Amino acid sequence: MLKAVEQCMLTWIKELQNDELYELFTHLPHGKRLRAKLVLKIAGESPQSVKLAAVIELIHAASLLHDDVIDEALTRRGVTSVNASDGSKVAVMMGDVLYSKAFTELVAFDDKIASSVASAVTILSIGEYMDVKMGESFNENEEAYLDMIYKKTASLIEVTSYCAALLVGKNEDDYKLYGKNLGLAFQIIDDILDIVSDDETLGKPALNDYKEGKTTLPYMYLYEALEDKDKKRLKQAHLQDLDSNESSWIKLQMKEHQSVERSYALARTLSDEAIKAVSQHDEKELVLILEDMMQREF
Amino acid sequence: MLKAVEQCMLTWIKELQNDELYELFTHLPHGKRLRAKLVLKIAGESPQSVKLAAVIELIHAASLLHDDVIDEALTRRGVTSVNASDGSKVAVMMGDVLYSKAFTELVAFDDKIASSVASAVTILSIGEYMDVKMGESFNENEEAYLDMIYKKTASLIEVTSYCAALLVGKNEDDYKLYGKNLGLAFQIIDDILDIVSDDETLGKPALNDYKEGKTTLPYMYLYEALEDKDKKRLKQAHLQDLDSNESSWIKLQMKEHQSVERSYALARTLSDEAIKAVSQHDEKELVLILEDMMQREF
After folding, report:
1. What is the DSSP string of A108-175?
2. Which residue of A260, A279, B77, B139 has the smallest Cβ count within 10 Å?
3. Are A181 and A256 in contact (CB under 8 A)?
4. Is the pLDDT confidence value at B203 over 70?
5. ∠ CA(A10), CA(A15), CA(A21), 5° rounding?
6. Superfamily name with CATH number, domain B1-109
7. pLDDT at B202 over 60
């Protein structure tokens, strides 16, 4: 049924009657289509659910295009990013095209769905803005970090579950909570993978986040645990190209202070809360999605 | 009543609860608010018309932010552009925030209005994409150029008039045609001003378009009129930093071959068609808007 979602997106992009854009779109890396899967698992398979899934995936694709421009990322899921292959101009415009096409199709849904998805996109954009701003200096504030990843990542996953539930008259608040916690856990796992994976699995250099300025949870937890002298050393490495000596030191310290484990534990707590939120709805597949996500390696 | 539109936008941006974004927004140059004026003149002054005007102006502001990133413009209306002052990352994200907030508010309008505005944004984004692509080489194709400026500039002005008419039950097709022709003429005048204005009036260096790759109508008409040897010279200047010698030569040739006058004549024809489109509706103010636009100097 994911195929129907892909087909729906291709049909919509074809409607734009611009061959180059269509070509570019077909070459975007697909990723896991987590959001489309969520819609189909929650709302079942119907013309409406396929369209909702396609709208959300277009929005997600647009946000990644702009995100890569912002991060100056050269690759996305191991593939050259659009901003690297075709320039950031094309990536910005292509993102705008996908966003606006998604909004055009969104209008056909009822107001509650349309306005909540549109609001989520605003929150998502603010989240990406906060991500950029927070990356300018070392961040010790866990609450601020969680607020930022809620906005940047969880808000769209939250609204995906919420709207899928609305489509079929399920209890939307339970599914909203599921989506929110899934989204938060997802981002924390993503942040962990940047530290524990090797470059090849990740499709980008490991420890890249910290170099880009992102003080993710494991760095924050490590900082808390370190002596003053080492706190200083960790801070000095922020936003720097790390040599293998410094990378090894960070990884060793994280091992010693169990910074990754502590981050993983928070993701686990959030994941458990997500499962609990839908526990009375017998949603085995949603539990599976969570477990897959928690155990993914890229 | 434009004040009510400004206030509405400020209230919406305030709702996003991000002080930095609010601050940035208040410093964006206002411009002429042509689109807001159009809504208010066509639909009169009501809470709905103010909101529609605010939605359209937010969309326009978002498109300018992204447009400046694309064009690597250092100034906008004589003021430092956001991408120049705060970086293109901030400009991209700020644009996304304004677009999505506009879409969020747009959902409250009826489907016909919401979907036509959303479609226009897609067309606008494709137009900006085409503008970038066409700028990579000298363009001789007038039809392709007019199609691009329809998409990039006229589509949003067209939908502005169309939706304003819908709001108050006026004949939407007449107003749509008015808006389309106003938009096309507006862009042609803009292109002319890049050639005939001095740097100070324009707020950016004159003959900047050609340096950026934009073969606007006067260049196209000049090319048509030139001898082969001079055709080659004009083509060679495309995408180049022009010294005063080359700039003067281009301006002199344009004078000799009346390239600007020919472009202005097309704008005049379009403007006349716009007036004709609403001639039976006794819209003196819309005629005034057109006349002001045709005679503007920046």
Report:
1. TS-HHHHHHHHHHHHHHHHHHHHHHHHTTS----HHHHHHHHIIIIIHHHHHHHHHHHHHTT--HHHH
2. A279
3. no
4. no
5. 65
6. Farnesyl Diphosphate Synthase (1.10.600.10)
7. no
pLDDT at B76: 66
Are the Cβ atoms of A100 and B118 closer than 8 angstroms? yes
**Position A78 pLDDT exceeds 70:** no
Mean pLDDT for all residues in chain B:
92
Q: B residues 243-272 near A, CB within 8 Å? A: none
pLDDT digits (tens, 9 = 90+) for B7-24: 999 999 999 999 999 999
- Give every CB contact of residue A246 below 8 A, 6+ residues apart in sequence: A237, A240
Query: Are A58 and A98 in contact, with CB atoms under 8 Å apart?
Result: yes
Residues of A with CB below 8 A from B103's CB? Answer: 103, 106, 118, 121
Q: Compute the distance between CA of residue B149 and CA of residue B151 in angstroms, rounded to an integer.
A: 5
Contact (CB<8Å) B115/A129: no
Q: How far is A229 from chain B (nearest CA, A)?
A: 34
Give contacts of B124 with chain A, Cβ < 8 Å.
100
Q: How far apart are CA B105 and CA B167, in angstroms?
A: 15
In single-letter form, the type of residue at position B73 comes to A
Pairwise CA distance, residues A148 & A134, whole Å: 9
List all residues 6 or more positions away from B151 whose beta carbon is below 8 Å from its beta carbon.
Answer: B123, B124, B126, B127, B130
Given A21, A89, A130, which is nearest B126 (Cβ)?
Answer: A21
Q: Would you say the CATH fold of A111-298 matches that of A1-109?
A: yes
ipTM: 0.89
Q: A150 touching B, CB under 8 A?
A: no
Q: Which residue has the tokens 């002429």?
A: B32
Model pLDDT for residues A229-258, shown as the tens digit of each residue: 999 999 999 999 988 899 999 999 999 999
Per CB-CB distance under 8 Å, the chain B contacts of A99 are 96, 99-100, 125
Token representation of residue A116: 């909540």
Strand partners, A79: A76
Which residues in chain B have their CB less than 8 angstroms from residue A95's CB?
96
Chain A: closest CA distance from residue B100 (Å): 5
Domain edges within chain A: 1-109, 111-298
Q: Is B111 an 8 Å CB contact of chain A?
A: yes
Q: What's the fold here for domain B111-298?
A: Farnesyl Diphosphate Synthase (1.10.600)
pLDDT, tens digit, 9 for 90 and up, residues A154-211: 999 999 999 999 999 999 999 999 999 999 999 999 999 999 987 666 566 678 899 9
Q: Is B23 on the interface with A (CB under 8 A)?
A: no
